[in-house]
Write a structure and sequence with these properties.
single chain, alpha/beta, Rossmann fold, TIM Barrel, 2 domains, six-stranded parallel beta sheet
Length: 474
């Protein structure tokens, strides 16, 4: 007999799904895998949801429709969903993948008309009730509920407690103050880690969360809205404990510390590095030979910190450089300078740590001169890898408010809101099409300068991505 899914004494059968397509949907990284590195990434957000719901006694399964070849065979995904017969399906989503995400949800609805279908993350958080309105999307939106906020696990606990219903358009605000309390260990057992690779080394890679939210308020960033302005960090001991767990249990070779800025506090990153140095002294080769990477701001990188990073096994670090023009950079509210950026690149180069720079073209103050100057400086810098993005005025961000008031937004289809796509004109006289052309020019120039030869990255996938995406076509 089918259980009453509003009876909270009965555990639910919950299916977590990474929808069809080829997208990165992890928090603010909403883009196709072809736009950055060409590999699938570990869905850490789903692992956290899984771990928490499992701890509450629910039966949880995970299916990756896009990375797992089994679900690409005709009928296999639908058959697997029918056999499990879940009470609720929770799908990842992102702006550029939203049509595909809704299609996946619709396919599930067709197979199981009574199932409750939900999503979470950046898209519902920034849109709120507008997520459900027909005017927002030019396709059928079959989702029954959304969880708003940067920690959806607690939102789903609340949703279940309130009683899941079909077709009610439920909106649940997650409890951000609890963000530090989830351990993902049990949830990770649901995932086939072999599916997820580092774009730089080609080895099996997983993600470990280091902090939640961000103390900064960059005008273009969705994180302050996603986490409702909160910032919290795990203890270094907790982070390193999870490193050891995944290394011992998942055949992982590379760990990405998922963090908006690992170096927000020097004491935090130094403590993590010091503990990882001790881990690497183990006689166990699994613990001795791993490498890791993270994301960071450049403001607090110094020689001592970079040296500790190197000794701890750091292979690379992603830097939010944004611009090499002081006026453009200063207007973002990021709190760094061009000299900070250049100094950090040199420190990492001297330590043999791969530097991955992210640059945003087309911010409101951008002129043709500032964009070309930024490109020139990046091309001739010691950055190992560069990704040039276009400024995207995501709903609810200060950038969106500024761009809307100034009439700069030229593309209103939210599924086009991918960081590789030009969306808006600038106050400095650039059209959105010119911004897109400058991005293409920047990528070609950078990788031509590097001679398309990145042997230090040891990744055929990444080199193939560079060659296929950025080799000039005659």
């Amino acid at each position: 007999m089918k259980k009453n899914i509003t009876d909270m004494k009965a555990p639910l059968k919950i299916l977590l799904i990474e929808p069809w397509g080829a997208y990165i949907r992890l928090d603010r990284c909403m883009q196709s895998i072809d736009s950055w590195g060409g590999v699938y990434r570990f869905p850490l957000n789903l692992a956290r949801i899984a771990a928490h719901l499992m701890s509450l006694g629910h039966e949880v399964r995970f299916m990756d429709f896009q990375a797992d070849w089994r679900y690409k065979l005709p009928g296999q995904a639908k058959r697997a969903v029918r056999e499990f017969e879940p009470d609720m399906c929770i799908l990842s989503s992102g702006f550029p993948s939203m049509e595909q995400d809704a299609f996946t949800a619709g396919e599930i609805r067709w197979e199981l008309p009574r199932v409750h279908i939900s999503t979470f993350g950046v898209v519902p958080t920034l849109l709120g009730e507008k997520f459900f309105t027909p005017e927002t999307w030019n396709f059928w939106n079959p989702f029954d509920s959304i969880v708003v906020g940067g920690e959806p696990a607690f939102g789903y606990e609340q949703l279940i407690n309130e009683g899941i219903e079909r077709g009610k358009n439920q909106l649940i605000l997650s409890q951000m103050e609890k963000t530090k309390s989830i351990q993902t260990y049990e949830g990770r057992k649901l995932f086939n880690h072999d599916l997820y690779r580092s774009p730089f080394t080609g080895g099996v890679q997983t993600y470990v969360e280091g902090s939640y939210g961000c103390p900064h308020r960059c005008t273009f960033c969705v994180v302050p809205q996603l986490y409702d302005g909160h910032f919290a960090k795990r203890t270094p001991e907790d982070v390193v404990r999870e490193f050891v767990f995944v290394l011992e249990n998942s055949r992982v070779q590379q760990i990405s510390l998922w963090d908006e800025g690992t170096t927000f506090q020097r004491s935090q990153i130094k403590n993590i590095c010091e503990q990882l140095i001790e881990v690497r002294k183990s006689k166990n080769p699994t613990l001795r030979n791993f490498s890791w990477n993270t994301r960071s701001t450049t403001a607090l990188l110094d020689e001592e910190t970079v040296e500790l990073m190197k000794l701890s096994g750091m292979s690379g670090i992603t830097l939010g450089l944004e611009s090499f023009d002081e006026t453009v950079l200063g207007a973002t509210g990021k709190g760094t300078t061009v000299s900070n950026n250049l100094h950090s690149i040199e420190l990492l180069k001297s330590a043999g740590i791969i530097s991955i720079g992210h640059i945003v073209l087309g911010l409101p103050e951008e002129t043709k001169q500032s964009a070309e100057s930024t490109i020139e400086q990046v091309v001739h810098s010691n950055l190992d890898v560069a990704q040039f993005y276009c400024a995207v005025p995501y709903p609810s961000t200060p950038l969106h408010e500024q761009a809307s008031k100034a009439g700069l937004i030229q593309v209103h289809d939210l599924t086009k809101y991918e960081l590789c796509n030009p969306i808006m004109d600038t106050l400095g006289g650039l059209t959105y099409k010119e911004v897109g052309a400058l991005r293409q020019q920047a990528m070609h120039q950078f990788y031509e300068k590097k001679n398309l030869n990145l042997d230090m990255l040891q990744s055929k996938a990444f080199n193939n991505w560079i060659i296929n995406k950025w080799t000039p076509r005659m």
